[in-house]
Write a structure and sequence with these properties.
By secondary structure, this protein is mostly loops. Helix content is 2%, strand content 5%. It contains 1 helix and 2 strands; from the N terminus they run ββα. The radius of gyration is 63 Å and the shape is flat.
């Protein structure tokens, strides 16, 4: 494959890019301020600033003199007396002007119903009697530190052609 020849040939000099000028603010029209036709006559007085007294200009503090002078001796506190109960006012019972006539009937005292008597509970006699020596469960040892628990029902087994192969037997 042949590459075609380029028939575009530049003629003359290339125009160079113009150099960029640094930024300058644009021209601004001067602000027009209206001329004031009000002219003040006489002297102009301003507010005077308050001059606070410095450390040396402060007046000495004066403590007011008390003109109240006690005459005689102060009454002392009475000695404390031991605690005692206060006096109680006697209760006033009003006089009753209603009097019952005749004899007053009082029914005989009745006993409250008690708990009924119960027959003692009968327990059936046990006809099962142990014979011979009693043998309990064998005592299992607790697992020691670092020892793993092996459960034969959860061991890894593989069935190969109907035969049971246990991985724990190979080790």
């Amino acid at each position: 494959m042949k590459k075609p020849a380029d028939n575009l040939i530049p003629e003359g000099e290339f125009a160079k890019r113009p150099t960029e000028e640094p930024y300058k603010p644009g021209e601004k029209y001067p602000a027009m301020k209206p001329r004031d036709n009000l002219i003040s006559e006489g002297e102009f007085y301003t507010r005077q600033e308050k001059i606070w007294p410095g450390a040396g200009d402060r007046y000495p503090a004066k403590k007011p003199v008390d003109n109240l002078i006690p005459e005689g001796k102060f009454a002392k506190r009475p000695p404390e007396q031991p605690y005692r109960m206060g006096e109680k006012y006697p209760t006033m019972r009003p006089v009753d002007n209603l009097a019952p006539e005749g004899k007053f009937y009082v029914p005989p005292a009745q006993q409250a119903p008690g708990v009924p008597e119960r027959y003692p509970a009968k327990k059936p006699a046990d006809n099962l009697v142990p014979e011979g020596e009693f043998t309990g469960r064998p005592i299992e040892e607790a697992p020691k530190v670092g020892e793993r628990f092996e459960d034969p029902s959860n061991s890894i087994c593989a069935c190969i052609h109907g035969l049971v192969f246990n991985y724990s037997d190979t080790q």
